[in-house]
């Protein structure tokens, strides 16, 4: 059996809000195989975003461990975690989170730029990725000139350009209409499978859930249901 | 450093163009103000330094007692063997001229009225040849070596004695033996030094007349005029070694007024520069603080994508550099334009306190001042930007992403 791309074991996380303590995760275990697309569902406050934050190394657990390709990454320093994120983890946000003053090409190029990839190689990879997501003609446009679907495709291109092992996606279709959401989902599956990237997706979107390989339902910081889901696409 | 970071910084300054324009304008105004004030101060220092050196000579050679102790009788500490000393001094390659000087005080009378005078015996032909028109003649003409027993009076003194060119006056002073002596002289000209208090007392005569009045062959000191200001200190060292029995002082040692003005201006313009610097830092800090708050969510995104806090801090510092640099360059151009405009269209400043004549307003174009100010402005804006951004780029990414 191959090493899981992501493995979470016994994750606990509590938030302190003034005098109140809110237990966000109370012992979450899950593993994500290479190329697997896993949907995290559950009501608001169930802990989906917290799992994404811990898996994406933008937050640290109170207890438990996060392993990325077999390496424990939950005890890394902030600088080390940044470098792991830079090299191995892609992010797709609900609100796209593109840099508005950068062109489409510059937004997609950014992860390669901060990773120190040579300019010529970056240009080639950015061109290929923009062609793959159907936005080569919009390379010089600013994000404001794009539709919501196009912006999310730019965000996906930005997440995948560095060939990450793991992609964290938080409600990636929530801001999109049905037709656009379908296109974005197809794109994620197609590009993700091509690269062998594992996807951890928090979503309420039933269309997205149906296209994932596996579904985990969270409630009150605990996994309450796991299900294998056949692909409809 | 990759130029891509500078490109990002430039693009970021274009996000809120009005705010960036205000920041650039403040930096430009600050730079221009510092350069204009500094250039004016430098022009003043240069003018006063030249005037001081022209008045006394770049170096003053005398017996040590002449500088350090008061005389009991006139020229008690005066220099003898003048020709020999003068020849030794003139042998130095940097020395252009050596002018004797006899300084004394006494009374000057028109027969009806006597008043106190401060007199200086000079070698008029050489003095005016080497110094140029250092006095403003208000009547008559300058003395010449041929016109024996002649004097030039400050215009306040001439007014007091109702004297004009051609008038006959009497000089009274104690000789080196302590005996009162008198000498009739003719007024050749009336001048103004620009300082009314000095013009009420000052008398110029030739060295021979002064020595005749004081019954001596000594002179008070020798003014040594050099080829250029920069030669002063090396020449002082050489001449001190050449004449160890005498003391050689620089014009700066004697220039009390120059030192006072320089000290005062340094404080005034130093405080002004500090205030301008603080204002620029406040404006940049304010602008960058707003930019950082507006971009907190974006900072969280970039951090999530793997950008190190140092890289983001550097981006903000570069934004400061772009705005500070543009402002500094703009300010330098403004200062340069004003300086050139003042050369083309001169503006006369009113007389300073204690003076009767104004002076042209000019701004020195000093390359080290320009480079220093531009560098300081850029560094200040970079530092202010980096300090403002430092905290936000290090806040938890989750908090930054949740920022609304």
CATH-defined fold name of chain A:
Rossmann fold
How far is it from the N-terminal to the C-terminal residue of chain A, by CA? 27 Å
Number of helices of chain B: 15
CATH superfamily of chain A: P-loop containing nucleotide triphosphate hydrolases
Order of helices and strands of chain A: EEEHEEHEHHHEHEHEE
Overall body shape of chain A: globular
Order of helices and strands of chain B: HHEHHEEHEEHEEHEHEHEHHHHEEHH
Radius of gyration of chain A: 17 Å
Number of strands of chain B: 12
Overall tally of domains of chain B: 2
Sheet with the most strands: spatial strand order of chain B: 2-3-8-5-7-6
Largest sheet of chain A: 6 strands, mixed
Shape of chain B: elongated
DSSP E strands of chain A, number = 10
Q: What portion of residues of chain A belong to β-strands?
A: 25-35%
Integer count of domains of chain A: 1
Name the helicity range of chain B. Answer: 55-70%
Class per helix and strand makeup of chain B:
alpha+beta
Q: Mind telling me the CATH class of chain A?
A: Alpha Beta
Taking pLDDT < 50 over at least 5 consecutive residues as the criterion, the unreliable ranges of chain B are none
């Amino acid at each position: 059996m191959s090493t899981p791309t992501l493995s979470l074991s016994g994750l606990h996380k509590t938030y302190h809000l003034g005098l109140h303590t809110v237990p966000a995760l109370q012992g979450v275990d899950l593993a994500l195989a290479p190329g697997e697309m896993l949907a995290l569902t559950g009501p608001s406050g169930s802990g989906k975003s917290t799992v994404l934050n811990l898996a994406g190394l933008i937050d640290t657990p109170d207890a438990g461990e996060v392993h990325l390709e077999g390496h424990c990454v939950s005890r890394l320093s902030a600088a080390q975690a940044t470098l792991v994120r830079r090299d191995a983890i892609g992010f797709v946000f609900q609100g796209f989170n593109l840099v508005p003053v950068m062109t489409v090409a510059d937004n997609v190029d950014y992860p390669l730029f901060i990773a120190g990839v040579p300019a010529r190689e970056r240009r080639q990879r950015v061109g290929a990725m923009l062609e793959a997501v159907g936005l080569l003609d919009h390379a010089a446009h600013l994000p404001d000139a794009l539709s919501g679907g196009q912006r999310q495709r730019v965000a996906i291109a930005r997440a995948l350009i560095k060939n990450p092992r793991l992609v964290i996606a938080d409600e990636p279709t929530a801001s999109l209409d049905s037709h656009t959401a379908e296109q974005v989902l197809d794109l994620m599956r197609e590009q993700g499978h091509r690269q062998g990237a594992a996807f951890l997706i928090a979503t309420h979107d039933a269309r997205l859930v149906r296209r994932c390989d596996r579904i985990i339902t969270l409630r009150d910081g605990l996994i309450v249901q796991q299900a294998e889901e056949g692909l409809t696409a | 450093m990759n130029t891509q970071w500078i490109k990002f910084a430039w693009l970021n300054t274009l996000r809120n163009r009005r705010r960036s324009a205000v920041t650039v304008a403040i930096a430009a105004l600050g730079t221009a103000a510092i350069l204009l004030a500094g250039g004016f101060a430098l022009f003043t220092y240069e003018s006063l330094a030249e005037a001081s050196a022209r008045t006394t000579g770049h170096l003053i050679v005398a017996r040590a007692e002449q500088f350090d102790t008061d005389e009991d009788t006139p020229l008690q500490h005066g220099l003898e063997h003048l020709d020999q000393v003068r020849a030794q001094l003139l042998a130095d390659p940097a020395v252009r001229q050596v002018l004797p000087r006899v300084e004394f005080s006494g009374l000057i009378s028109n027969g009806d009225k006597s008043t106190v005078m401060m007199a200086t015996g000079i070698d008029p032909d050489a003095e005016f040849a080497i110094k140029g028109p250092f006095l403003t003649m208000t009547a008559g003409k300058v003395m010449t070596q041929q016109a024996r027993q002649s004097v030039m009076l400050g215009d306040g003194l001439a007014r007091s004695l109702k004297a004009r060119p051609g008038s006959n006056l009497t000089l009274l002073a104690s000789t080196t033996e302590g005996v009162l002596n008198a000498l009739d002289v003719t007024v050749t000209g009336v001048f103004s030094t620009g300082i009314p208090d000095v013009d009420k007392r000052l008398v110029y005569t030739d060295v021979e007349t002064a020595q005749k009045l004081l019954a001596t062959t000594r002179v008070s000191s020798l003014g040594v005029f050099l080829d250029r200001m920069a030669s002063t200190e090396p020449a002082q060292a050489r001449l001190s070694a050449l004449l160890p029995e005498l003391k050689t002082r620089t014009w700066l040692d004697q220039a009390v007024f120059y030192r006072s003005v320089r000290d005062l201006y340094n404080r005034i313009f130093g405080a002004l520069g500090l205030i301008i610097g603080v204002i620029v830092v406040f404006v940049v800090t304010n602008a960058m603080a707003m930019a950082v708050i507006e971009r907190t969510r974006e900072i969280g995104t970039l951090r999530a994508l793997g950008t190190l806090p140092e890289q983001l801090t550097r981006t903000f510092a570069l934004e400061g550099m772009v705005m500070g640099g543009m402002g500094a360059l703009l300010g330098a151009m403004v200062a340069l334009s004003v300086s050139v405009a003042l050369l083309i269209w001169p503006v006369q400043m009113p007389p300073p306190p204690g003076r009767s004549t104004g002076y042209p307003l000019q701004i020195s174009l000093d390359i080290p001042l320009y480079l220093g100010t531009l560098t300081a402005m850029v560094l200040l804006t970079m530092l202010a930007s980096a300090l403002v951004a430092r905290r936000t780029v290090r806040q938890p990414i989750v908090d930054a992403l949740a920022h609304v």
